[in-house]
Amino acid sequence: MSLAQSLRGVRVLDLSRLLPGPFLTMVLADLGADVVKVEEPRMGDYMRDFPPRGEGMSGRYLTVNRNKRSVAIDLKDGAQREKFLRMAAQADVVVESFRPGVMDRLGVGYEALRERNAGIILCSISGYGQTGPYRDRAGHDINYLAMAGVLAMSGSSPDGPPAMAGVQIADMAGGAMWGAMGILAALIERGRTGEGTHLDISMTEGALALLASEFGIIDAEPAVPTRGTGLLNGGAARYAVYRTSDGRYLSVGALEPQFLKRLAAAAGLELSRGPDSDADLRDQLTRIIASRTRDEWESILADCDCCCEPVLELDEVAAHPLHRERGLFFEIGDSGSPGSLQVRTPLGMPDGRRPGPALGEHNEEVFREYGVQDM
Questions:
Q1: Minimal CA–CA distance to 69: which of 371, 355, 372?
Q2: For residue 162, is the peptide bond before it cis, meaning its omega torsion is within 30 degrees of 0?
Q3: Environment class of 315 (CB within 10 Å of its CB; exposed 0-12, middle 13-18, buried 19+)
Q4: pTM for the complete prediction?
Q5: What pLDDT is attached to residue 303?
Q6: Residue 1, pLDDT score
Q7: Is the per-residue pLDDT at 54 higher than 70?
Q8: Structural domains of the chain ordered from first start
């Protein structure tokens, strides 16, 4: 079953910029929602100019703004603010990622929107939440992960520094994905009650929620869980990453006994018991895996069903047979240009193939559809 038109008829006005909000509204657009980026006229979403970029817009911008339209509205101007409010009166969802309080100061906060549209759903994404002592504090993904405890869990040893996350976990998982789920839930609730709501999505809280299972065991551990000590973050030899002879890496996730036995049989490991068994296993895995190339191990272990897979570099991912067979990638625009390679979400392939819009590209058609073209 395709979900590509499941939100058909849902109107979204997106005031957000950069990554969390645009990724959220990309998910909604993939599901068929009509997403309009509402941007200030001078610069708009400045991720268009983020390096590295080719001669056109930044690939980072293009990949999270597909199938959207853009209008330019200056919310600091009274007449243009009224234009936005009239559009909001006809919309279902407004997404914003300003600092807390900015929407109210601009005259387009939740109460102002609700006066025009009792069913409006406002999703506010911020670093630390709309309330509390950190509401006005600036931050980025690394800061939110630090405050959530996620950063402290990443790294090879409690004696060493935390490791940088490879992707923006707080932005994408902590903000965008929780925001998308909240909007979908709010749409269902509005269908029952007719009332909208204001979603307060804190990226710090969203990232912290990913540690739910760790907090569930904290009282049972002899020491506070931290980087490089837990079963799933580097503390176990059978769940780790090992270097191969060609300088690449193999991921080993042989947690359960049956998987470890199969790995041992295929790789020639000697499994032992006792207090030093994990250290011995790590030494063996380090030495044996380093004796062959990554591709050789992939071939040897392919049919063993032992939870071992090659660590793919980014330029290898799109060509991998798994992703090709499942149609994970598609192209928009000129092949090979920044932003042309697009990744579908697990929810399925979007119907549209429109690239991210230029600033104000759709002023005429969008304003006409909302009936505000003469304002």
A1: 355
A2: no
A3: exposed
A4: 0.94
A5: 94
A6: 64
A7: no
A8: 11-210+345-370 (3.40.50.10540), 239-315 (3.30.1540.10)
Residue tagged 């970029």 (tokens): 53
Residues with catalytic function: 140, 171
> What is the identity of the amino acid at 210?
L
Which ranges constitute the DSSP H helices of the chain? Answer: 20-30, 59-64, 78-88, 102-106, 110-116, 141-148, 169, 178-193, 203-208, 212-217, 257-267, 277-289, 294-301, 314-317, 321-325, 363-370
What pLDDT does 5 receive? 94
Cα-based distances in Å from 341 to 177, 214, 314: 21, 36, 12
d(CA 254, CA 257): 7
Six token digits for residue 234:
């580097």
The answer, yes or no, to whether residue 110 has pLDDT greater than 70, is yes
DSSP string, 221-252: SSS---TTTSTTTTS-TTEEEEE-TTS-EEEE
Per-residue confidence at 151, pLDDT binned at 50, 70, 90? very high
Q: Does residue 53 carry a pLDDT above 80? A: no
Residues 127 and 138: beta-carbon distance below 8 Å: yes
pLDDT in tens, 297-320: 999 999 999 999 999 999 999 999
Q: What pLDDT is attached to residue 95?
A: 98
Q: To 5 degrees, how large is the angle CA 22–CA 373–CA 365?
A: 55
Q: Check: CB of residue 66 under 8 Å from CB of residue 343.
A: no
Q: CB neighbours of 255 closer than 8 A, spacing ≥ 6?
A: 231, 236, 238, 239, 307
Task: Write out the two tokens for 193.
Answer: 């009650």
Question: Mean pLDDT throughout 67-75?
Answer: 98
CA dihedral of 360, 362, 363, 364, whole degrees rounded to 10 = 150
**In angstroms, rounded to a whole number, what is the distance separating the alpha carbons of residues 362 and 68?**
10
pLDDT of residue 304: 95
* Interstrand relation of 11-14 and 197-202 (parallel, antiparallel or unpaired): unpaired
> What is the C-alpha separation between 174 and 127, in angstroms, rounded?
10
Q: How many CB atoms lie within 10 A of CB 215?
A: 12
Polymer length of the chain? 375
- Burial status of residue 257 (CB atoms within 10 A of its CB: 0-12, 13-18, 19 or more): exposed
